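From the shared-data thread, chain only:
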Amino acid sequence: MHYVRQTLHFSQNDLARALGVSRRTGQRWTAGSGPVGTDLHKMARLVYPADAALAAEIAAAAGTTLDGLGVLPPPPPPPEPPHEPTPPADWIVDAAVVCAAAEAMQVMPQSVRPAVLAAFACARELGLTVEGVERVLRSRLPSSGAHE
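Structure, as tokens:
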């Protein structure tokens, strides 16, 4: 009882009032009878913000746990699963990737499309990322011909 009052900086009367019991009941608790049952539950809830370990001891004395008393905050929600990137629109692939390859080779897009498809299919089958392929290919370009 003394630890509870000390933790909360409460007098005997303050504690009785906070727990919703009479002043006389608070005096009996101090004299040695101590709270029981739902009074211990209230006390654990009251003490928890100031001293979680002491609140757990009080809950255990009442035959329960802080979780059983609903004192503990709920666990955070599980993280959302990562979102799959939205597949690119067909025109983006054709206008950006295929045309970039065609322009670099100075050929028409329909000439380069099968080669680009074969390269991407092979990279996917090998488990390579676009970034990884780009890094290796960029490192193999002559310095004067590197495109950023």
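The longest helix spans residues 109-125.
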